[in-house]
Amino acid sequence: MFIYRVRRRRRRAPLSPETAAEVERLRALAKKELPPRLSELAAQHGFTYNQVRIKHNRSNWGSCSDKGNINLNLNLMRLPDRLRDYVMLHELCHLKILNHSHDFHALLESVCPDHRALQRELKEYKLI
């Protein structure tokens, strides 16, 4: 006999009107600024991707699929430019190596030599 648990999806608490307005403002700004910058970084470093989407995730700044799609968190707009670029370069590197192996970090090092310091700095920011 197998016992299993059904995972229930936690729903995000409703946002206050002020917070909802801020999220929509950030979403509009992110849709305007992030895709062109991602395209610029991809061209500069020889990456190609399929689609880019702007999300409002609680757990990550960005993600990448094996189909070449990149998701970026709208909260990136709250970060300094150098940290936004770091997140985008990190996700672009995942287009070639879909894990955090030594090879992945070597590739990230080649496109973003100060990635370790940027990663430490990014940990000082919290997603909301």
Task: Give your account of this protein's structure.
With 128 residues, this protein is mostly helical. The protein has four helices and three strands; from the N terminus they run αβββααα. The protein has a three-stranded mixed β-sheet, covered by helices on one side. Helix 1 packs across helix 2 and helix 2 crosses helix 3.
Shape descriptor reads globular
Termini separation: 42 Å
CATH fold-type name of the domain at 36-122: Zincin-like
Note the beta-strand portion: 5-15%
CATH homologous superfamily of the domain at 36-122?
Metalloproteases ("zincins"), catalytic domain
The CATH first-level class of the domain at 36-122 comes to Alpha Beta
The tally of beta strands, per DSSP, is: 3
Low-confidence stretches: none
Estimate the helix proportion, in percent.
40-55%
Radius of gyration: 16 Å
Structural class: mainly alpha
Report the mean per-residue pLDDT as an integer.
91
Biggest sheet: strands, sense, closure?
A: 3 strands, mixed
Could you give the order of the helices and strands?
HEEEHHH
Order of the strands making up the biggest sheet:
1-3-2
Helix segment tally: 4
CATH level-two architecture of the domain at 36-122: 2-Layer Sandwich
Strand and helix layout:
Layout: H1 17-45, E1 52-55, E2 62-64, E3 70-73, H2 81-94, H3 102-111, H4 115-122
Parallel strand pairs: 1-3
Antiparallel strand pairs: 2-3
Helix pairs in contact: 1-2, 2-3
